[in-house]
Amino acid sequence: MERKDLNYYMKLPYIIEVVPIPEPQGGGFTARLPQIGRLAITGDGETPEEAIATLEVAKRKRLTDYLKKSIKIPEPEEEKEEYSGRFIVRLPKTLHGQLVTAAGENQISLNQYVTYLLATNFNLDRQDTQFEIIINELDSMREVIWGISYSYLLATEMEETYEEIEQEVEE
Fold first, then answer.
1. Chain centroid offset of residue 94 CA
2. Most buried in the list 43, 59, 69, 140, measured by CB within 10 Å?
3. Which residues contact 57 (CB under 8 A, 6 or more apart)?
């Protein structure tokens, strides 16, 4: 296993974005490493080459600082695989027949119908996941609000009890 020191991180193939700076803001170019953070490490220059050169200097300084402070340094993501859009699915003959019939009733091809069903159910599945996250957040908020309300009620009761004791002592 390679040691993850400054040289290791300097050699990683981070994507470099070079963006023109609008003239009203001084012109030139900014280079940045979006995989580390859009504004975490940047370099500026009159040309794209100068911006990249200053980016490399800033990268070395920032990574050195991150390593000294034991800050986790994100590594570049691997390139995503290209997909052909085709895959083979084996299914029972009866289901195949039902799908062909349903596609015919909808006046579309079997391929279009299955794609529609997959997309619809995929999106429903993703929505269910999002709803579950939202429900969990709401439950957490409800518990916090309940805790605050309970604390407020206890404090109010204690204050009323304290006032009653004060009145008894004064009498």
1. 42
2. 59
3. 43
